[in-house]
Amino acid sequence: MRTCELDLSEEALEALSRQGFDELYPPQAEAVPKALSGKNLVVSIPTASGKSLIGYAAALKTVLERRRKVLYIVPLKALASEKRDDLDRFSDLGIKVVMSTGTWILRTGGYMIRTSSWQRRRRRTP
Predict the structure, then answer these.
(1) What gap in Å lies between CA 118 and CA 123, rounded to an integer?
(2) Domain extents in the chain
(3) Please, which pLDDT band fits residue 111 given cuts at 50, 70 and 90?
């Protein structure tokens, strides 16, 4: 399956293509249409096999078409920085990306990238 076949706006499809997303791997081809239809997914596939595109496609649809915000949670600060940089590449679509590595409430922007490590610290505190 090619990204141009996905149920996304023309601007989102063009943005994905500019980022080099053209052909979907088999796990992506199975998962992305489900994610775009609004289904919740748990995706367990190896590193570098396309999990990010699954999340990005669903997030683009949510932000651009449904005009809603997205919370993208990751477990590590380094990964949060990487995802922020990836998602910043969609800023030409008017998407604002913010990143937090502590307790923070999303008030503006389309995406928020968040690490989950702050919750582990809070649970240890009496």
Answers:
(1) 9
(2) 1-68, 69-126
(3) low
